[in-house]
Amino acid sequence: MNTGIPIKSVKESFRQRFGREALYMVQAPGRVNLIGEHTDYNEGFVLPIAIDKRVVIAASPRNDRKVALYSWNYNSLNEFSLESIVRDNLNPWSNYPRGVADLLQKQGYRFSGLDILIASDLPIGAGLSSSAAFELASAWAFLMAGKKEGGVEVSPSGAFSRPQMPESLDLIGLCREVENEFVGVQCGIMDQFISARGRRQHALFLDCRNLTEEQIPLPDSVKIVVCNTGVKRELAGSEYNKRRYECNQGVHFFKERIEGVSALRDVHSSDLERFSSKMAPLLQKRCRHVISENERVLESVRSLRAGDLEGFGQLVNASHESLRRDYEVSCKELNVMVEIALQQAGVLGSRMTGAGFGGCTVNLIRNESVNLFVRQVEERYQRETGIAAEIYVCHTSDGAGIVGPQELES
Ligand code: GLA
Predict the structure, then answer these.
(1) Tell me, what's the pLDDT at 148?
(2) Is 183 near ligand 1, meaning CB less than 6 Å away?
(3) 200 plus 323 within the same structural domain
(4) If you compute the radius of gyration of the chain from its CA atoms, what whole number of angstroms results?
(5) Measured from the CB, is residue 359 less than 6 Å from ligand 1?
(6) Total number of domains constituting the chain
(7) Residue 91: helix, strand or coil by DSSP?
(8) Which domain holds residue 388?
(9) Nearest of 55, 61, 59, 149 to residue 96 by alpha carbon
């Protein structure tokens, strides 16, 4: 069970802020991607896990078609009317629930109004998908109080068993659209998908082309340790879009030469070798990362199924090298963090995770070595960079949904 957010204080804070009880609480987790970086928007493969850091929302409907948002972390209040939802550039954090409410209304949902309190223990800008978690939690909060005209009502009454979400609603797609259109970040589908569909003690093997998914059991002999470099990935926005553009150029190149190519997912290493002399060196590097990374994800799933953790660890290491050299989305601190990690005992693999240019590394560590690993990496990273790293020993968690009675009463 997640213990990071004190549910009792959140409930109490809701009572103080809104003068009544929260009728229900929902939550959505952040994620760490084990392997398959910058492949989702190339219609490729990813292997993320949902983690035990998350966004929790306490909510109660109101009747004046207004939504009041209170951020527990920022101690900040924001309000909007459901009659006309616009972006609020002064309070960008409010754009996630604004976007969710707007798109749900456009899909025919009706809400009478909502008081919402948001609490999160996900660091912002650390590459652990706090945005996707906020979107998914917001979607659940609204759906618990909403009704689709002529459709199924989703009601919080009889709560705390998972309500049936209307089948036609593509919650994951909707949240991604919020990010793309309302918030303005051209992300792929991975983050919203894992925040919605994660499962405890499993990694999610997702084919980002046809959205087929498979839960891959994780062994309990290793821990996933996340090391936050403390460098916020500020460059990510512009560089991320640049990489997307470069990938499109790659698609264009191969489309003219190989039949049936519509994304880099369709190109194999042998194709790349065959045509490399005709490609600009930079384009070649970008394509090599995506093509080889897709192959590494498939190989990783085979390794995990076979219980070959060393093999998996090597693929994780190779992923970092490829992101560093070919895709050029790493940074000095991420590289230092990985180098230090790889010198420790019990480390099977280490690499940057997420979009890059800062944020976190993901490390696969044998259980018995975790404590020493955390101490040594903390100390050496501080010594070499002057930055205090935050290190989390992650637990996998289930995807978005209602905060259950056990936790509510704890
Ligand atoms: C960000 C995006 C994801 C994905 C990763 C890189 O987290 O939101 O869609 O592209 O970067 O793998």
Answers:
(1) 63
(2) no
(3) no
(4) 22
(5) no
(6) 2
(7) coil
(8) 219-394
(9) 55
Q: Say how many Å lie between the CA of residue 82 and the centre of ligand 1.
A: 30
Q: What six digits make up the tokens of 348?
A: 């099977």
Q: How far is the C-alpha of 152 from the C-alpha of 360, rounded, in Å?
A: 41
Extract the residue ranges of the chain whose pLDDT is less than 70: 1-3, 147-169, 234-237
pLDDT at 165: 55
What pLDDT, on a 0 to 100 scale, did the predictor assign at position 152?
Answer: 42
Distance, CA 137 to ligand 1 centroid (Å)? 19
Alpha carbon nearest to ligand 1 atom 11, residue: 355
* Same domain, yes or no: 246 and 342: yes
Counting atoms of ligand 1 from 1, which one is nearest the CA of 131?
8
Do 159 and 234 lie in a common domain? Answer: no
Is the same domain home to 234 and 180? no
What CATH number corresponds to the domain at position 353? 3.30.70.890
- 97 C-alpha vs ligand 1 centroid, how far in Å? 20
Tokens 């590394």, located at residue: 361
Tell me: do 230 and 297 sit in the same domain. yes
pLDDT of residue 182: 85
Tell me if 2 is assigned to some domain. no
How many angstroms does the Cα of residue 153 sit away from the middle of ligand 1? 33
Give me the pLDDT at residue 122, please.
95
Provide the pLDDT for residue 168. 52
Whether residues 243 and 124 share a domain: the answer is: no
Residue 57 sits at the vertex; the CA angle it makes with 51 and 63, to the nearest 5 degrees, is 155
Q: What is the largest CA-CA distance in the chain?
A: 69
What does the block give as tokens for 29? 């987790």
Pocket test for ligand 1, best of 34, 35, 40, 51 (most atoms within 8 A of CB): 40
Assess whether the C-beta atom of 176 lies below 6 angstroms from ligand 1: no
Is position 64 annotated as part of the catalytic site? no
| Residue 22 belongs to domain with CATH number | 3.30.230.10
Q: What is the Cα–Cα distance from 182 to 178, expressed in whole angstroms?
A: 5
Q: Of ligand 1's atoms, which has the minimum distance to the CA of residue 188? A: 9
Could you identify the atom of ligand 1 that is nearest to the CA of residue 41? 10
Q: Say whether both 65 and 162 belong to one domain.
A: yes
Residue 29 lies in a domain: yes
What pLDDT does residue 157 have? Answer: 37
Does a structural domain hold residue 201?
yes
Can you tell me the distance from the alpha carbon of 195 to that of 207, in angstroms, rounded to the nearest whole number?
16
Residues 205 and 223 placed together within one structural domain of the fold: no
Ligand 1 geometric centre to CA of 186 (Å): 9
**In-domain check, residue 303:** yes
